[in-house]
Amino acid sequence: MHDAQLRMLSTYNVVFASVRGCAQRSALLLILFLLAHVAIGKADAVSALERARSLDMPAATATVNAEFEHADFWETNGHTIREAWLELDQANLALADIVDPSLLESIEAARDNPTLANEENVLSSFIETGPPGKGLAYTSRLLTSEGIRALRSELDKATSSGIPLRRPNAMNRYGCIIDKDVDGAVSLSSLTSFVEDLIDGIARPVGRALFNHTVGTEDDKEHFAHTIRYNAEGDMELKEHRDASVVTLNINLNLPEESYDGSSLYLLDEEDIGSDGTGTRHFLEFEPGALLIHRGSVRHAVLPISSGSRQNLIIWLFGEDGQVRVAPYNEKDRLTVEQRWGKEMENNDHDDDKWKPEL
Ligand SMILES: [Fe+2]
User: Fold this and answer.
1) Distance from the CA of 235 to the center of ligand 1, in angstroms?
2) What is the residue-wise DSSP string for 81-124?
3) pLDDT 10s digits, 18-71
4) Which of 6, 176, 249, 282 has its CA 20 to 30 A from that of 85?
């Protein structure tokens, strides 16, 4: 073979080898690409619900970093948890299907036509409770039996979902937070919408009407909603405390057929508390479906439950950045009946960037 032929063959071999090398590299790259694609596909195939369920949630009793217990865990996984709630079926919890119709009718009349007479008609459903004559707390029927069942069904869906639930606060470790903006809260839209409708439609106007001397338009802009479950396996009692709110709603979510012993709720008149720190306890009748609405500054507590279980929905109203007004307004600065009930009173704090109590 001539040198030229040898060189040509050699060139062919180099080119062929090069082409073959390219082909091999291309094939290898293609295989790697496909493997990576399959791996990514598998990752995508794991739903947010599955990922949320597989999280190693901090124990309800864990107390690391005091009030900021395990904040890193909730912030890191907040997005996954929020996505997971979207994968569950949602019921429709309209106020008209949940709230006592006669109360709702009177409230709608006051909202449509905010007069003192219509306001008085609503307030006639609210009976003063706690320290008599002080105007600190009131009760009313709020939920129908069917309404309680519908709410409980959604709450049971949330608590049995396997999605990690952040505890509401250091005194309440076995309830859950209901809020679409808080990492680790239940953000089922059925429940968050119900809470927002309840606040806009009932809590703010009634709170402004009952506590007109301390609640102005800036004082009830934000909210914090959570449940409490009292039973032998979880929270058994609530020590005496005040709430970080201008107005608190406490709704009894027990079904009429659910019984329990103990767990009595009482309020204390601040002015009646002696130097030893004790005062007269005013115990309340608190029927299933009832609403207790009180000023957050009123001291209150729940005695230990001795059998059965009890479940409540709590809503705090407060001002921007957690401001809690205590001082009364001068007569001339208090809200008018139109400001208490008019449609424009809906502050609608349902944004993504609102302040939340320390959890
Ligand atoms: Fe409280």
Assistant:
1) 14
2) HHHHHHTS------HHHHB-HHHHHHHHHHHHS--HHHHHHHHT
3) 445 555 666 666 666 555 555 555 555 789 999 999 998 877 776 666 556 778
4) 249
Q: How far apart are CA 117 and CA 17, in angstroms?
A: 96
Residue for token digits 């479906």? Answer: 289
- d(CA 249, ligand 1 centre) in Å: 9
The structural domains of the chain, with segments of one domain joined by +, span: 1-45, 52-345
For residue 274, the CA-to-ligand 1 centroid distance in Å is 21
Sheet of 127-129, strand order: 127-129, 137-141, 290-295, 247-252, 310-318, 222-230
Cα(76) to ligand 1 centroid in Å equals 29
Residue 171 Cα, ligand 1 centroid: separation in angstroms? Answer: 9
Query: Rounded CA gap, 147 and 125, in Å?
Result: 18
The pLDDT of residue 355 is above 60: no
Q: How far is the CA of 358 from the centre of ligand 1 (A)?
A: 15
The answer as to CATH 2.60.120.620 being correct for domain 52-345 is yes
pTM attached to this predicted model: 0.82
Phi then psi for 239, rounded to 5 degrees? -70, 160
Q: How far is the CA of 242 from the centre of ligand 1 (A)?
A: 6
Contact 284, 265 (CB under 8 A): yes
pLDDT of residue 239: 87
- Residue 177 contacts residue 297 (beta carbons within 8 Å): no
pLDDT tens-digit map of 123-161 = 999 999 999 999 999 999 999 999 999 999 999 999 999
Q: Residue 139, SS3? A: strand
Q: 108 CA to middle of ligand 1, Å?
A: 28
- For residue 282, the CA-to-ligand 1 centroid distance in Å is 15
Tell me how far the alpha carbon of residue 300 lies from the centroid of ligand 1, in angstroms: 6
Is residue 130 within 8 A of residue 269, CB to CB? The reply is yes
